[in-house]
């Protein structure tokens, strides 16, 4: 017999070892349910008995546990349930479903003991006493407790179409592109099949200083999937994902996730909103670690549930956390959410965050249908504490992106990634390029762009917005419009926009033409903008209406209540220069010549009762705007701000020039406003706008502040929803607008309403101002008379001693999209054609 060569013997031995190891492997999977309700239980701890090998059930109560050695018994442990031990077959692969029996001693359910009801209480509760110690020691354990800190941070974000069915995967369009799909364990979030569509990586050095308080981030490398800019704004997409998936700081009172504020389980007021249970003590390390489980007192509120791990010493530091949300939470489109935080002991004897992972799965249905899964993993290394940092580090902007950060090659990323990345994930960069070249994908993107952005791209020119092609009003009758704009495919420096419209009733043509020149060799749709624009527009306009984010001839705004017969024919000649800066300060310098002619039920009558056919003004204006930390998604028609806690300041000055290009009046108009969102933790959030204006000079009523009214049936946030068009004018005013969303704080406590996941909204608007005698035609000659109805009743008023006020109470999140308000007007009820009450609706997509 010939001897076996050593190079054949070694793989044979390896194979035999592997077979032997596989033969000893114990694999158990199954589902854990409530023995009474039969509902699945998430976050149940499952361990091989007397080992450290364990896992937790997922959001659907499923688990998989693997040991390389023979195992014969499992333990199941969950807050409020009796611990269960089950025998299993050693060295085998098997399924094992378990039902847990509620433990009356640990639940908030009523237990009959001597005829009395015993409920969960904070008083004399060791778990609550422990969490209060954690809260009391927060300041000493958070990273801001050090004088200086520096560390390196690696971030990876991955997004995929999830729960993709085999039918969808095998569609004809994907027949030759099966490599685009990836498979995962079906027990994980997102189902079996995934179609990755986006990946992003970032490597940065961070520096913090306590006194003086400063911070600096230097991005040394960044990489992301690049979509076709004709359809998707890559920078805006990255900004939106960053807002949705922010850093998770458990030491903050509120944690921002998916654009909502969740109360931290160690927030100052956490014991009032959470129930805490001590579920385990880990004595195998020093100091000992106590496992604290927590659950919301009200499962519908913006609260987490899960576990945190705390040192059993005088520091009470968090060493880890794993939590998600209850399936009954009042949160839209979120199928599952899981957050894991890992902390490591540092050279100061404290614990610092070493890794965080946020995984969320979205979908229209709770379990069925295609969804969208996003995962953000952040790894922290190379911590340095209380070391001297030169002042030069903090000079300039707080975030700096190195010039070559986006040009790092593969070798750089292989060397500098602080975390592993799979080959399948790396393939996404190339796969998306392949996907975008599919003709069927291009057709789909064109349809999506048409539906959501309103434009049909034809290469160098795009047609739209389509929602303005058809509308109607009482003066023009049926109004038809067609137009579009050029794209960067024609030129990155020159842009042209135009449309042509015709009214069937008034038989008049309207049109618009503009030309824009970009001064920074960037698209005018990109931030920061720097361009000059010249335009001419001949069209109609409702007096006082400057609708934001929508076109005035939008079809849906054609439906109006009450008498709606006032319109202006306008000729606008404009020249504007717009300059934005990276710090989100911007200014707009403009010149406008405006000729307006009243139409329909609106007439301009001078003090001699003579009709005035045309009013012409020439204006120069300067607008200053500062929006620190503003984030937005840049669309084709407008920017969509991503709401956050930072204020927006606006200041505008306009000067009328008499005698310049036919201008008839001299005046000065000063306007300022502040917009801010206030987060009130479990009570929701308030959007507040404070605005004021003053006009110096003698002017007729068309040049006064005509307050924003609303005669449509849509609820408009920035308008007075029960005020009629041109009902009030002022030459000085201040106003406040408060719109508060409670996020279901009250409805979540009502058993029947809780299931509907409705949300309460309230609003209040007040306008205080007036008209000086010099601008009031009742006291001054040489001014236009205020408009009246056909029957002679007064139509336009100056505000009196009382402010105009209106408020509303509403129900939001109807079908997850609709808000309906009952609006009440509190005063000036004797004015003609006004309503004290009204019902208004608004479509709003929100998580």
TrEMBL record:
Q: Does the keyword Protease apply?
A: yes
Q: Which residues form the signal peptide?
A: 1-23
Q: Keyword annotations for this protein?
A: Carboxypeptidase, Hydrolase, Protease, Signal
According to the UniProt entry, its GO molecular function terms are: carboxypeptidase activity
- Specify the domain of life of the species encoding this protein: Bacteria
Record-linked InterPro entries: CarboxyPept-like_regulatory (IPR008969), DUF5686 (IPR043741)
What is the official name of this protein in its record?
Carboxypeptidase-like regulatory domain-containing protein
Task: Give the organism the record lists.
Answer: Pedobacter miscanthi
Tell me the organism's taxonomic lineage: Bacteria, Pseudomonadati, Bacteroidota, Sphingobacteriia, Sphingobacteriales
């Amino acid at each position: 017999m010939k001897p076996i060569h050593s190079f054949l013997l070694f793989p044979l031995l390896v194979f035999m070892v592997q077979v032997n190891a596989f033969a000893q492997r114990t694999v158990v999977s199954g589902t854990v349910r409530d023995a009474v309700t039969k509902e699945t239980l998430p976050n149940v701890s499952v361990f091989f008995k007397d080992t450290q090998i364990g896992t937790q059930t997922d959001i659907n109560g499923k688990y998989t546990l693997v040991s390389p050695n023979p195992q014969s018994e499992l333990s199941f442990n969950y807050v409020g349930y009796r611990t269960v031990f089950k025998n299993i077959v050693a060295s085998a692969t098997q399924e094992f479903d378990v039902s847990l029996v509620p433990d009356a001693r640990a639940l908030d359910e009523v237990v009959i003991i001597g005829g009395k009801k015993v409920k969960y209480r904070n008083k004399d509760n060791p778990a609550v006493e422990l969490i209060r110690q954690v809260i009391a020691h927060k300041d000493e354990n958070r990273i801001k407790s050090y004088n200086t800190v520096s560390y390196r941070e690696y971030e990876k974000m991955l997004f995929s179409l999830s729960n993709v069915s085999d039918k969808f995967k095998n569609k004809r369009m994907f027949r030759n592109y099966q490599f685009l799909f990836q498979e995962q364990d079906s027990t994980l979030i997102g189902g079996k099949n995934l179609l990755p569509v986006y990946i992003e990586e970032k490597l940065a050095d961070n520096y913090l200083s306590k006194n003086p308080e400063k911070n600096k981030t230097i991005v040394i490398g960044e990489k992301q999937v690049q979509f076709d800019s004709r359809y998707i704004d890559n920078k805006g997409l990255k900004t939106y994902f960053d807002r949705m998936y922010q850093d998770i700081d458990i030491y903050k009172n509120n944690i921002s996730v998916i654009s909502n504020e969740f109360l931290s389980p160690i927030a100052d007021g956490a014991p009032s909103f959470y129930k805490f249970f001590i579920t385990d003590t880990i004595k195998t390390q020093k100091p000992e670690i106590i496992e604290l489980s927590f659950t919301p007192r009200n499962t519908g509120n913006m609260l987490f549930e899960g576990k945190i791990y705390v040192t059993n010493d005088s520091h009470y530091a968090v060493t880890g956390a794993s939590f998600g949300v209850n399936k009954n939470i009042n949160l839209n489109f979120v199928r599952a959410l899981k957050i894991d935080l890992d902390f490591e002991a540092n050279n100061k004897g404290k614990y610092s965050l070493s890794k965080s992972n946020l995984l969320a799965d979205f979908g229209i249905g709770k379990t069925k249908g295609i969804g969208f899964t996003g995962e953000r993993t952040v790894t922290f290394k190379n911590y340095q504490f209380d070391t001297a940092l030169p002042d030069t580090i903090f000079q300039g902007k707080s975030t700096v992106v190195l010039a070559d950060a986006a040009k790092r090659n593969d070798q750089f990323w292989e060397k500098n990634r602080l975390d592993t990345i799979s080959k399948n994930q790396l393939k996404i960069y190339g796969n998306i390029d392949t996907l975008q070249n599919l003709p069927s994908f291009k057709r789909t993107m064109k349809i999506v762009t048409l539906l959501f952005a309103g434009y049909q791209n034809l290469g160098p020119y795009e047609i739209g917005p389509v929602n303005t092609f058809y509308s109607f009003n009482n003066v023009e009758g049926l109004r038809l419009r067609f137009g579009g704009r050029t794209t960067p495919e024609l030129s990155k420096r020159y842009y042209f926009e135009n449309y042509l419209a015709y009214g069937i009733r008034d038989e008049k043509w309207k049109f618009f033409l503009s030309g824009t020149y970009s001064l920074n060799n960037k698209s005018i749709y990109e931030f920061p903008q720097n361009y000059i624009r010249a335009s001419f527009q001949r069209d109609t306009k409702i007096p006082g209406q400057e609708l934001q984010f929508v076109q005035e001839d939008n079809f849906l705004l054609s439906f109006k209540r009450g008498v709606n017969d006032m319109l202006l024919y306008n000729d606008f000649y404009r020249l504007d220069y717009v300059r934005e800066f990276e710090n989100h300060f911007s200014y707009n310098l403009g010149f406008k010549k405006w000729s307006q002619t009243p139409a329909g039920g609106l007439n301009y009558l001078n003090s001699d009762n003579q009709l005035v056919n045309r009013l012409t003004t020439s204006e120069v204006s300067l607008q200053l705007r500062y929006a620190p930390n503003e984030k937005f998604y840049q669309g084709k028609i407008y920017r969509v701000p991503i709401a956050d806690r930072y204020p927006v300041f606006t200041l505008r000055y306009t000067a009328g020039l008499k005698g310049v290009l036919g201008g008839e009046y001299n005046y000065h108009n000063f306007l300022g406003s502040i917009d801010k969102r206030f987060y009130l933790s479990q009570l929701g959030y308030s959007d507040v706008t404070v605005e004021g204006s003053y006009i110096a000079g003698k002017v007729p009523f068309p040049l006064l502040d005509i307050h924003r009214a609303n005669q449509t049936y849509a609820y408009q946030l920035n308008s007075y929803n029960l005020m009629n068009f041109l009902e009030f004018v002022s030459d000085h005013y201040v106003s406040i607008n408060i719109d508060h969303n409670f996020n279901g704080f009250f409805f979540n406590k009502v058993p029947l309403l809780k299931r509907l996941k409705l949300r309460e909204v309230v609003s209040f608007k007040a306008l205080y101002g007036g008209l000086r005698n010099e601008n009031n035609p009742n006291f001054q000659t040489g001014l236009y008379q205020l408009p009246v109805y056909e029957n002679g009743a007064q139509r336009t008023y100056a505000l009196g001693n009382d402010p105009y006020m209106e408020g509303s109470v509403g129900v939001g999140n109807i079908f997850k999209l609709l808000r309906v308000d009952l609006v009440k007007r509190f005063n000036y009820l004797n004015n003609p054609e006004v309503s004290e009450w009204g019902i208004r609706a608004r479509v709003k997509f929100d998580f």
